Amino acid sequence: MIKCGECGYENMDGLDYCDGCGAKLAAGAAAAPAAAPAAFEVKAESSGVSEIKADGPPEAGSAPTSTSDTPTGSSAPEVPKSEAPTGEIKPEAAPESAPSAPTAAAAGAPFKAKLSVVRGGRKGQEFPLEDGNNLVGRWDPETGSFPEVDLDADDPEAKISRKHALIRIDGAKITIEDIGSLNGTYVNRQPRLSPGSPVEIKSGDEVIIGKTFLKLVVETIS
Question: Are 220 and 110 in contact (CB under 8 A)?
């Protein structure tokens, strides 16, 4: 650093004019290099150790002097270092809670399910079922929506309502319910299902929608 003789402002080395007042800086006015570290000083007030100073290496043959009670040749007591860089005590981290096991619904169904047309439509046509809700019905030209199980091509007489039934896969459970269809929904040729009342179905069950007969096929995932 170069100290200005006019205003005392300390300027960076290599400048000709002071950044503080604009005065001409005297050549060679750079601050003298810092003196080499001389004496080392150790203080341990809490342990009662008095001040130790060393101005330089001891002369040959002379014994080191000390004003403390520390025995000759022993070093000053070390102060335990803190683990934290700032010297503060680190708080113990709270234990992480173990992740809860996923539910069957979150992990997905442990199988693949589908409906296969066995009568009254395109025999052998299959409709894969997804986890969650699967709408059974026909394409709606007014809204442009397609149900997951679109039986429009299998129902030339329009016996199937646009929104006819709902099949739901929830974990390992499969249910079907009528949602207010005109011609009803039937399972295994039992009485017509009451709208809004889900009934559990399993692999091999027969489902009748309008005049279309379908079979539920469930395949376990290995």
Answer: yes
Q: Residue 112: what residue type?
A: K
Confirm if 29 and 6 have CB atoms less than 8 A apart. Answer: no
Cα within 13 Å of Cα(26), Cβ side: 11
State pTM to two decimals.
Answer: 0.51
Q: What angle do CA 125, 130, 135 make, to 5 degrees?
A: 75
Task: Report residue 212 as tokens.
Answer: 């279309």
Cα angle at 177 between 207 and 121, to 5 degrees? 30
- Structure confidence by residue, pLDDT tens digits, 109-146: 688 999 999 999 899 999 999 999 999 999 988 888 89
CB count within 10 Å of CB 216 equals: 20
Sign of the alpha-carbon dihedral angle for 185, 186, 191, 193: negative
